[in-house]
C-alpha cells in the first residue's frame, strides 16, 4: 500500500541544505513552477529519499492567505505524486533536494497544478536517469 503522507522529515528545513540546493543545484521551469533540484548519492542515515521546500513569492501574492493556500495546494499535489518519485529514487540509489517555486501571477486551479506536477516528476526522473548518479545502477 502506498503511503500518501508528508512528514516533517520530508520537508527541507536545514539552512545549510537549502543554501546547498540553490548554489549547487540545477533548475528548470515547468510553468507555473520553477524547480530547483540537487541530486546526491543515497545516504543511509536519511529516512526519506527526497526533501522538499515550497515557496510562493510575496511580490506576486500580497496576501498571506493566498500564498499559504497556494503552498498548501502545491504540497498536496506533491504528496499524492510522491510514491512514484520515491520508488524511482530508491531504484537509482539517490537522494533529492527539491525546491518548488510558484512563478505564475494567477492562482491556478488544483487540477492544473496536479497535472503540471506530474510533468515535473517525469522531467526529474529523466534528469536523474541522465545524471552520473542515476546511471550507476
TrEMBL record:
Swiss-Prot/TrEMBL catalytic activity: Endonucleolytic cleavage of RNA, removing 5'-extranucleotides from tRNA precursor
PROSITE patterns xrefs: RIBONUCLEASE_P
Swiss-Prot/TrEMBL keywords: Endonuclease, Hydrolase, Nuclease, RNA-binding, tRNA processing
Gene3D superfamilies reported for this sequence: 3.30.230.10
Gene Ontology BP, a term: tRNA 5'-leader removal
EC number: 3.1.26.5
Stretch forming the signal peptide: none
GO molecular function, one term: ribonuclease P activity
InterPro entries reported in the protein's UniProt record: Ribosomal_Su5_D2-typ_SF, Ribsml_uS5_D2-typ_fold_subgr, RNase_P, RNase_P_CS
Subunit structure: Consists of a catalytic RNA component (M1 or rnpB) and a protein subunit.
Functional description taken from the UniProt entry: RNaseP catalyzes the removal of the 5'-leader sequence from pre-tRNA to produce the mature 5'-terminus. It can also cleave other RNA substrates such as 4.5S RNA. The protein component plays an auxiliary but essential role in vivo by binding to the 5'-leader sequence and broadening the substrate specificity of the ribozyme.
Family in the record: Belongs to the RnpA family.
Entry-linked HAMAP family: RNase_P
Protein name: Ribonuclease P protein component
Taxonomic path: Bacteria, Pseudomonadati, Bacteroidota, Sphingobacteriia, Sphingobacteriales
Amino acid at each position: 500500500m502506498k503511503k500518501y503522507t508528508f512528514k516533517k522529515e520530508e520537508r527541507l528545513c536545514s539552512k545549510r541544505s537549502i543554501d546547498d540546493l540553490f548554489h549547487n543545484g540545477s533548475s528548470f521551469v515547468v510553468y507555473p513552477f520553477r524547480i530547483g533540484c540537487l541530486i546526491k548519492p543515497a545516504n543511509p542515515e536519511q529516512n526519506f529519499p527526497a526533501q522538499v521546500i515550497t515557496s510562493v513569492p510575496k511580490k506576486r501574492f500580497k496576501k498571506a492567505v493566498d500564498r499559504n493556500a497556494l503552498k498548501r495546494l502545491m504540497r498536496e499535489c506533491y504528496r499524492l505524486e510522491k510514491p512514484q518519485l520515491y520508488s524511482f529514487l530508491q531504484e537509482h540509489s539517490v537522494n533529492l533536494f527539491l525546491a518548488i517555486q510558484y512563478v505564475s501571477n494567477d492562482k491556478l486551479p488544483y487540477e492544473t497544478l496536479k497535472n503540471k506536477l506530474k510533468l515535473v516528476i517525469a522531467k526529474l526522473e529523466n534528469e536523474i536517469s541522465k545524471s552520473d548518479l542515476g546511471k550507476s545502477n
